[in-house]
Every structure is written in C-alpha cells, then in structure tokens.
Amino acid sequence: MKNLVIILILLFTTSLVEAQTKKWTLKECVVHALENNISVKQSALDVELAEITKSDAVGNYLPTLNGSASNSWNTGLTQNVTSGVLETQTSRNSSYGLTVGVDIFKGLENLRTSQRAKLTELSAQYNLSKMQDDITLFVANAYLQILLNKANLEVVTSQNIVTQEQLQRTNDLVDAGVLPRGDLLEIRATDASEKQQIAIAENAVEISLISLAQLLLIQDYENFDIADEDFEIIDEGISSKQISEIIASAQENRSEVKIAENNLDIAEIDLKLARSQYYPSLRGFFNYNTRESNIARFATGIDPNNPTITQEIGVVQSTGDVVVATGPNTVLQELDPLPYFEQLYLNDGISYGVQLNVPIFNGFAVRNNVKRSKINVRRQEYLLEQTKLDLESNVYQAYVDAKGSLKAYEAALVALESQELAYQYAKDRYDVGLTNAFDFSQSKLRYDNTKIELNRAKYDYIFKLKVLELYFGISATELKF
Question: Which of 32, 304, 455, 461 could make an S-S bridge to 151, C-beta 3.0–4.6 Å?
Fold first, then answer.
C-alpha cells in the first residue's frame, strides 16, 4: 500500500511538472483557438440557428395538429347545456377539441421560405469559415511575434556576453596602463545600455506571451510558453504567380465574396417572398369537438304514485256524452348527469372544409414590402461589387507587401553579412589597440541592430506570405510554416 501511494505521488508530480513545462506548438495553438475562441463559438452557434431555421422551413410543409381543453365554473344566470334554458345555477362545464390544418396553396411562400433557409445556413457556414481563417491569422501573427521577440532577446543577450568579456579584458588592460580609462567607461556604458535592452526584450517576450494566451483563453499566464521552433521561409511558388491569377482564385474561394453572393441570393428570395403575398391562400381544416357537464338532466317518466290518469278527450256531438280516456301519467323527472365518458361520446361533433383568403386591400403593406425588397436586392448587388473591389485591393496590397517583405529580408541578409564583417574587423582592431572603445561599441551596435532587423524582416515576410497564400485559396489549417 505504501509503495502504491509513492507511485501515485510520483505520477501526479510528473504530470504536474509536464503540465507546467508544456510548450505549445503553432499547430496546437491554432487547433486550440478554433475549438475555444469565443468568436468562433459564436459563429458556430449561428450555424446551429440556421439549421433550426431550416427545420422550421421543412415543418411549414407539414399539417398542423392542435388540441384544446377547457374546464369552467359558472354561477348565476347561465344556459343549461342540456336543456338550452337560461337558469340561475352553479355549474361546471368542460369541452375538448382537436383541429387539423394543412396549407393547400400559400402563394409558394413555403417553397421560398425553404430556399431562404438553405441559403441562410450556407451563409452561416461561410461566416464560420471566414472567422476560422481570421483567428488562424491572429494566432499565427501572435505566435510569430513571440518568436521574433525571443530571437531579439537572444541577440541582445549573446552580444552582452561578448561585452562582458570585452569589459573584463579592457579592465585588465586599463589596470596595466595599456588602454586609457575612457575606453573602460565606454565599455561599461555599452554594458549598461545592453542590460537595459535585455530588460526591454524580456518584457516584450512576456507581453507577447500573455497576448497569445488571452487569444487562446488560457488563464495560466505564468506557465504558458511556446515551443522554440525555428520557422523557415517556405515558398512553393506563390510569390511567383501573377497577381491576376491570385485575384481570380481569391474571388472564387474567399468567404467574403461567397458571403456577399449568398446575401444577394437571400435578398432575391426575400423579394419573391414579398410578392407571394399578392396570391390567395387556400387552407384545409378538420375539427373534432365534444363536451360534458355536471348539471342534472331532465327526462319524462311514469309517476309511481299515480301511474295512470283519466282525462276528457271530447264530446259525442249527437248525444252530448263526454268521452274520457285513461293513459299513463307522465311527469318531468330530474336525473343525475350521465357518466363522464358517455357524455363525451354522445356530445361530440366534427366540422371540416377549406378556407380561401384573397388579399384585396391591405393599406399598401404588400406593395411597400415588395418595394423594400427590390431596394435591398440593389443594395446587395452594390455590396457584392464593393466586396469584390475590396478583395482585389486587399490582394494587391498583400501581393505588394509580400514582394516588399521579401526584398527587405534579402537586403537584411546582405546587410548582416556586411555588418558582421565590419564588426569582426572592428573587434580585431580593438583587440590589438588600433581603435578605441567608442568606435568598437558603435560597430557592435550596428551589428546588433542588423541582426534584430533581419529577425523582424524574416517573420514579417513569413506572415505576409501566409496572408497571400490564404487569398490564393489555401486553407488556414493547411498553411505551412
């Protein structure tokens, strides 16, 4: 038992350490964001609502079935439901009904509603796809920003190590009288400046990690970190494609255009729906009703105390004799109500038929709805045209940005190579005392800045390349980094 407890403690401790030291890859971040981001969840809810609307449209074709039941107590002058006579009474009455209705013709409204529901569902799916693309880009940009900040931190940290070595060496040479004390002060100033830059770089890394964690809805900021991946620039020919080809692909595949086209289709269906109100509608119905009451019923019967009665029925005209006859003596008797289910059986009835509604005049409501729908169709046509123009502009911008970022990256590579040679030359001269500490520090500063600029140009080009690939129609989940 003791050994089992120890093993469980070790397993728990190991899992806790692994959870605390987990480093998120870009793919894990994207998948997590697509599953947990609030905006994506809201778009997914819109898809669910659209599916419910589609179910409503299917239900419009089906008959309606409604039941009704009522139970009431009446006191005072009310109609006796058994005799039809108004009486001052206290009574309880219940009634039940079942109604079936079906649309035979409704101006094609049900058909149009069904078509609109399908388009609404499609539009919700396009919106979800667009939101997923946007979130993927947000996550990728935030992830690359962390990598950039970490790379910059590595640059200033590694260069400060060199400065520390130069500081120790310069201090020894100053003590030996080989170098002036001003060189030592200059190196110390460089060291202080670099330590400040390290603190700024560390803060930038921390802030960018928090920003990504918030985007992923991760609250454990302290233990959140990403994998230190060295992303390479992958270009499978996208930058060499003609701008017209990229624009054509974007207009065919991008969700923005599909959403605008779908909205135009919905507007046209809305116009047909508005026009359907001009047509008459025909509806069939079938009703079944029954009722019961606790009111006593009345019936005629033989008087048990005086079962027969002799009455004068006429006179013989020739003799004047009275004619009498004996017959049953009937009286009106009050009886208990019939049993509940027997009343329901005896008092039921049905009605059925069709109902025709013809719109004749409705205060211009239908005509104005048609006019509004026509205006909305024109509006959606303009929005579609504007969406295509905006997309074309955005593609041009992304294309120019990607080309410019590539040139900036290539220039940064050349600049780094030159600055590295210049820095090494200045270092060699400083080591043999042929240059002072100020000139050496300036050369080192230019070299550091060039490395930082190369990092910025690299990750900027990677991100803009991915934007261009998205416009070309590559799925967000299939982007290669």
Answer: 455
